[in-house]
TrEMBL record:
This is Putative ATPase. It comes from Prosthecomicrobium pneumaticum. InterPro entries: NadR/Ttd14_AAA_dom (IPR038727), P-loop_NTPase (IPR027417). It holds the Pfam family AAA_28. Residues 5-181 form the NadR/Ttd14 AAA domain. SUPFAM superfamilies: P-loop containing nucleoside triphosphate hydrolases. The lineage of its organism: Bacteria, Pseudomonadati, Pseudomonadota, Alphaproteobacteria, Hyphomicrobiales. Gene3D superfamilies: P-loop containing nucleotide triphosphate hydrolases (3.40.50.300).
Length: 192
């Protein structure tokens, strides 16, 4: 079993709150690359922001996801990632006008999607991927999350297609309190 566990799904669906609950329980966690990139870019007056230069932002997200994986390799036990490499690759492919991880051959024929999938496969994670569904009742925009719920749901749909295409099993998390969600994740992993 690969010890790198991905929490993905809908933006604003409670991933970061769940990551914090898992951290409180003593698990290693990796915070979302996007929020870290935005903070760093703002601090240095950079332009790799999703609302300024989306391609540069996503290239940074891919690089950060790879660096996060390398850093997490030194250690033992499960490591929970708030988003990960596949999320960044799917977004980058979408930004480039491609359908990431389409049926084998279809994406490669357009020149790119096959490359995204090959990079994702070269850096595997646990087959179980935990998905937070769209949850309008808790979705909020802020200074870092400027997109609306419709864009978040479209991203969710792209990710929900990409992960199974890479051989992952999606576990859509129930809309329940965070501690119950954490119990659910750990039970599926046999770590609870």
């Amino acid at each position: 079993m690969n010890r790198f566990v991905i929490l993905s799904g809908c933006s604003g669906g409670g991933k970061s709150t769940l990551i914090e609950a898992l951290r409180r329980r003593g698990h290693r966690v990796v915070e979302e690359p996007g929020r870290r990139i935005i903070a760093a870019e703002r601090a240095r007056g950079g332009r790799a922001l999703p609302w300024v230069d989306l391609a540069a932002f996503l290239d940074r997200a891919i690089a950060m996801a790879l660096a996060d994986r390398a850093a997490a390799a030194a250690g033992t036990g499960l490591v929970f990632f708030d988003r990960g490499l596949v999320d960044a690759l799917v977004a980058r492919a979408h930004c480039a006008g491609e359908t990431a991880f389409a049926a084998e051959g279809a994406g490669a024929a357009r020149g790119g999607s096959g490359e995204w999938a090959a990079l994702a496969r070269a850096h595997p994670s646990n087959r179980a991927v935990f998905f937070v569904p769209p949850w309008p009742g808790i979705f909020r925009t802020d200074g870092d999350r400027r997109h609306g719920l419709a864009e978040a749901v479209a991203e969710y749909d792209r990710l929900a297609a990409a992960y199974p295409a890479l051989g992952h099993t999606l576990h859509v998390l129930p809309k329940v309190p965070v501690e119950t969600r954490a119990d659910h994740v750990l039970a599926i992993l046999g770590a609870g």
